[in-house]
Amino acid sequence: MEKILSLKYEEGQLVMIDQRKLPLQEVDFVARTYREVDFAIKDMVIRGAPAIGAAAAYGVALAAREFEDLDKEDFMKNLEEALEVLNRSRPTAVNLMWAVKRMRKLINENQNLEVKALSALILEEAHKVTVEDQAINIAMGDHGNTVIPQKATILTHCNTGALATVGIGTALGVVRQAHYSGKDLLVYADETRPRLQGGRLTAWELLKEGIPARLIADSVAATLIRDGKIDVILVGADRVAGNGDAANKIGTFMLSVVAKAYGVPFYVVAPTTTIDFESRSGEDIVIEEREATEVTHIEGVRFAPEGIEVYNPAFDVTPAENITGIVTEKGILKAPYTEAMAALRRTL
Amino acid sequence: MEKILSLKYEEGQLVMIDQRKLPLQEVDFVARTYREVDFAIKDMVIRGAPAIGAAAAYGVALAAREFEDLDKEDFMKNLEEALEVLNRSRPTAVNLMWAVKRMRKLINENQNLEVKALSALILEEAHKVTVEDQAINIAMGDHGNTVIPQKATILTHCNTGALATVGIGTALGVVRQAHYSGKDLLVYADETRPRLQGGRLTAWELLKEGIPARLIADSVAATLIRDGKIDVILVGADRVAGNGDAANKIGTFMLSVVAKAYGVPFYVVAPTTTIDFESRSGEDIVIEEREATEVTHIEGVRFAPEGIEVYNPAFDVTPAENITGIVTEKGILKAPYTEAMAALRRTL
User: Which of B112, B136, B160 is the last residue of a domain?
Assistant: First the structure.
């Protein structure tokens, strides 16, 4: 099995698998400037909350490199602008803001260094973000694996795999660890309209891993859940509020309602970097609305009539009460989440 | 507003709007033989339970015309084969079987007639099926309109309009009658993967009618329902069992679960011809599975990786307990459905 790397840094450039082209074409997108990283995040060359966080960290490193020849004051000014731009590239994924904040803190703490030294330190920090994410993925996978039966049919939504992270994945990382530990799995992958990350990316990753999988339209899941054909549902998150409400790819909330109605375990798998301790509930979470063409066109081909209005929110919020557990690298959080979150926060 | 006619009979040929090509191309598909009608139903040139029923009735008429020059015995033999073929063209829509049964009954009752006279009678009966469906649509629309508020946001699934019938539609017929009666409507139309009948056909019909509409991915509906943005949900049915369980386009069941969880009225709009009084519950309903390419490809363009397995059921079954009411041309049935159905049956 070849290892999937959503991004890698190579001497002054960030090489990303161009996820817009998968699975039909496996080509790289190379960013040499922070603005190219900003574009890559916006246009979903790279997506998935943890992957976006790592990309943004490297974006700051590319900016630092870009401005290395300026004097300190201009360097700092330009760097600050890069931080601002990257921070705004997508609104919902909290890892993005987390990564930018981490880089800003590092810069502030080391502002007495010379430009070149500071630039080197920033790159070092971006590498750290990546290495940490890999370890976090393994830890989440191991914790999550404890809730997977020896023979299990798992339902997934969107893509939460290697492509969404810089490691083995969040929810799909749990699937990988269960598979590696010898469990007998069948994965139903929701295609995840409108961007079809399940149909494109999760299907591709599962095929590469040799994990038995079936692709379904999003609305097929409800019948499978009712008919007892799903043992556990694993989803990722783009932002988890302090009370356990979780923003994730549109369609997650719907699954959670059906899971709750029919008593099927529903787990959110997300690193602690995805938790926004400051937001008290899902109501505080900004939901990104994306272009109408994501709905009216597929593969650049229009299928809906000209002139039809579209409502296209990228995410929805699943209330904590619908979530069986939140799998983090520190263990599995259970209700009451506000207490569990507060306890977790004290350990970070 | 030009009137949309899903099919019309013209001297030896059945002219259908080719729904595979809508909304980008408005072209006709012309069937001159019953086998072409069978193909049109199978390949979804025409779809929607009532429209399929009418098409099948005309298919029998085309067969009769085709075999008019044979002697009586061969005519009857070939006609019987046509009835068999048309009856099997799709497995779930009960109107198809209903229409074939009606034509067979007519043939049996008039088997003493000469070939030409019998053929003329068959065509007459197909016209009757069409005219009746138009009247039934209006009656359903009027009954359904009684549950629509003066200012209402309505959620629809799949296409249940003029294209799915030979009149104004079933669920979309209710929307039309509400609109014609001066109500202030906004319709959220589910795109309805995998075949996108909502995105292609319902969006097209609503634009033609000038009814304010927004297209959404199927999984967006859940959040709209929870957030109180939907006043009423109207869906069609392909087969209603004797206890009120309703088979309809995949995704209907999911909506019903969310509607029930959040107390939003959920109506099935279906003519009595869609009721299969013989099947005691949804478990008796055969669910058609369709080709993997409906999921892996859109507009003939592949987006999912080669080799991925697909599960593609065309319908799901919504249990009677999730249904607020079943709008028929005879009025609105309410729980307990078994009693309501039995009472209805006695009037037919």
Answer: B136
